[in-house]
Recover the amino acids of this structure.
């Protein structure tokens, strides 16, 4: 009563040994990842703001930017102008298997799109790979997949100061990063997957057929 079923994407959910997965992420330099087309409404410039702030504040980090698009040269120019080349790495278009491997190794994932994103299946994939996701609130999947500061973090879209604050919280607290990544993984394995969605749909159909 007074509830509805919500439509959503259910990409492949890969099972991992969570301890092995989290072990991959243990390193001195914090690994940050951004994946998507380098276009205006995905706001890839977010990584520049993050990198500049973290560099100025003395953090050890590395950012992989995976994807191509019309803003590729713009982002590349900003990296050179701000002398961020040691920190931000433009990886271009990569095969999915390699992208997935990068996700598995990453500590923090940034999803900076605005309302044009729709669902944003990349959030599912980052969470499945045990990343601590920091997502714009306007990404369609964010309010459904993420419980703020529990299995992910949400920031106000295009509020870059808030994004920096949220990323810094994770940079300072390795234990929190790992716990958020662990909970993100279990959210995908236990709830947000095709098998569970199909089971719940069958429950609904059976209930309706019996009035």
């Amino acid at each position: 009563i007074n509830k509805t079923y919500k439509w959503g994407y259910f990409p492949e959910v890969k099972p991992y040994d969570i301890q092995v997965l989290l072990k991959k992420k243990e390193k001195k330099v914090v690994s940050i990842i951004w994946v998507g087309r380098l276009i205006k409404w995905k706001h890839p410039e977010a990584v520049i703001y993050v990198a500049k702030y973290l560099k100025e504040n003395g953090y050890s980090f590395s950012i992989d930017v995976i994807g191509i698009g019309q803003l590729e040269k713009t982002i590349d120019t900003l990296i050179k102008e701000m002398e961020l080349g040691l920190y931000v790495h433009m990886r271009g278009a990569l095969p999915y298997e390699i992208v997935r491997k990068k996700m598995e190794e990453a500590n923090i994932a940034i999803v900076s799109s605005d309302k044009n994103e729709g669902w944003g299946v990349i959030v599912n994939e980052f969470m499945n790979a045990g990343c601590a996701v920091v997502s714009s609130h306007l990404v369609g999947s964010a309010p459904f997949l993420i419980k703020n500061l529990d299995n992910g973090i949400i920031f106000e879209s295009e509020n870059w100061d808030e994004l920096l604050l949220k990323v810094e919280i994770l940079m300072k607290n390795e234990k929190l990063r790992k716990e958020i990544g662990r909970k993100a993984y279990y959210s995908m394995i236990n709830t947000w997957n095709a098998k569970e969605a199909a089971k719940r749909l069958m429950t609904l159909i059976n209930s309706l057929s019996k009035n």
In short: The radius of gyration is 18 Å. The first helix runs from residue 18 to 24. Strands lie at 30-35, 61-66, 88-92, 108-111, 132-136, 153-155. The chain has nine helices and six strands.
